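Ligand: zinc ion. Inputs:
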Amino acid sequence: MAPLIVVQVVVDRPLAQGFDYLWDSERLGGSPEIGQLVEVPFGRSNVVGVVIKVGTHSDFDLEKLKSINGFAPLPPLDPAALRLINFASQYYIHALGETIIPTIPQMWKKPDSWKKIPQKLIAAQEKKKKKVQLDQGAGFIQEVDLNAEQKQALEKLRHCSSKKNEFTTMLLQGQTGSGKTAVFLNWLSAILDDASAQVLILVPEINLTPQLERRVRTYFPEKKMVVLHSGVSEKERGIAWHEAMTGKAQIILGTRLAALTPLPNLRAIVVDEEHDPSYKQQDGIRYSARDLAIWRAHDVKVPILLSSATPSLETWLAAKAGRYEHIRLDQRAQGAGLPKVHLINTRDPQNQFSPGDVSKPKGKSLITKTLANAISKNLEDKKQSLILINRRGYAPVLSCSACTWLSKCQQCSSYMVMHKAGALTKKSVLSCHHCGLAKPIPSHCPDCGNADLKTLGQGTQKIEDAIEEMWPRARVLRVDTDSSKSSKGAEELFQEIHQGKVDIVVGTQMIAKGHDYQNIGLVAVLDADARLFSQDFRAAERLFAQLVQVAGRAGRSGKDGQDSGDIYIETQYPESAVFQYLLGHDVDGFLSHITSERQEAGLPPFSYQALIHAEAKSLDKAIQLLSTLKAQLKSQGHISKGLRVYDPVPKAVMRVAGSERAQLLIESDSRKQLQEVLEAVDRGLRENSQGRISKAARVRWLIERDPSAI
Ligand SMILES: Nc1ncnc2c1ncn2[C@@H]1O[C@H](COP(=O)(O)OP(=O)(O)OP(=O)(O)O)[C@@H](O)[C@H]1O
Ligand SMILES: [Zn+2]
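Predicted complex:
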């Protein structure tokens, strides 16, 4: 009789342990391997899992063990990928199975189709061969064409990463438009000379990938490249992931979800726009893709390059302290200067239209006179304008002019946003951005019957209308998640801008990032103040980064001495530090300034944080669970020097879709101490829970390490 084989398998459930199964060699053929994807009976159904142990013993009765149903036609996940996922699971206090299974594309999690997959792959490969098209000329700067500063940066990158099998972290800090992308692509080029080498390029958001994708393809037409982000179809993602994990793809370009892809021959990592908050996963395991990428580079001993015009405070301080190599590009690549910053004080009557002002264009004046004049001038100069307002929809609230009625969401503690009819919705609606509830616009006030309902505040749609009225001959385009979901996708909207088919673009932060526009003469920011006074201590850092980034879209192609574009910011508080440092494009000055603020307050990166989230039918229950948890930590002696456990509080938006939410903040001076406490928290909560729901009070809980917003 063949010896008995016992394998331990983890599945996608919030359970700390793995489960033992028998491997029936005769029926299955082949032998089990760690990292193999298998199908197992679990409860009353069958689920996929990953083998984490292979042996001949079990602590359970062998007679009662069930057998593995089958295994996927895939090589096992390689040991480095398993180490990475193990680390993520421990560091973010998230069960191993629940960490590993979501990283595998759907296509590989359907055991029914495991037999058919190989044919699918071949068919897809054939089809793909035909449609590779290159966009010659688009940002293809060869090494010889780099300017002196870029060449120097490239030299330094090569020097710092010249030793084989050595981990280094490098920060490439360069002005917007300084040609960072051109530098890192040339850096990767030498690494890719080794035919088997794989490189991972992470970008923050989907709408950034098409442009960069074309650029990378143009640099490396011979290399196999795959793109991984949530906009890629399931089938394509399954194929791309397979090519990455089998070492067939050399270039893996993707968003945060690509950070956990198994890459057996990984030689270098680039994290573009490393400061971007979208590297943080906001549901399930709440990891930072940038932080995991750094751990991964360290683990497999390869260089990692973080690139940004506005590095995060964490990264910048590490570079200052010499833990990261600091490489800089201080000039714009095409010779232009940086755009001139204008702060428009909205309290100053001189900046406003006066009633009866003859210069006032027609329509509602939702913008200042100073800005309107600048836009008119920019139109005359045949340059494009970019107007940023970080709120989609028509207006954030609808109100009654006769009573106190406001368009509150019945399921959430927030207001319903008015959206005007458009390509996405046939009729105007009130829609809740938290729970998705949508309702027709009432014709009368539901409370008092008054027919005069007014909008409060403004979103992209209202500004778009106002701009169209003021400049009826200008071609206006709105770019936000609504407009990009309708008939045209984001990529098509951006193409229209690039091709000069648009004069004025109104959009949310979607338009602010990474895009390499060539003809923007003016950038305007309308609602910067809304983010100036936030309870989140990172708000100012984010706002500053975003303003530098959006300003960086202007005047990129201006040649020496030519106009380098303008950015106008409407604000009631021009004296705020954020704006004052922006005037001089002083990124380092601003980062020094917030360093001292954070240090004094003992906030990250001078301390480490975690949030315990709780959600229940009533706020009391959620708070109760967290209070009990806090008391437990105290009585078990966990609250010692250097550790601060705050009181539980309701979340900023307390009610969402009928659930009420609270959080508990834990802060420590040491990563290690925080790890220990969080492990204790996890054990404590698990003891009285089924999965992640407390048995008694039905409170759903979740631990979040290094929260990006508190
Ligand atoms: N050496 C060069 N000579 C001429 N043009 C260049 C050179 N290097 C880069 N460029 C061009 O300058 C523009 C900006 O370069 P790139 O996109 O690489 O900058 P970046 O620093 O990554 O920009 P950002 O951070 O603002 O997104 C691009 O259009 C690029 O083609
Ligand atoms: Zn709602």
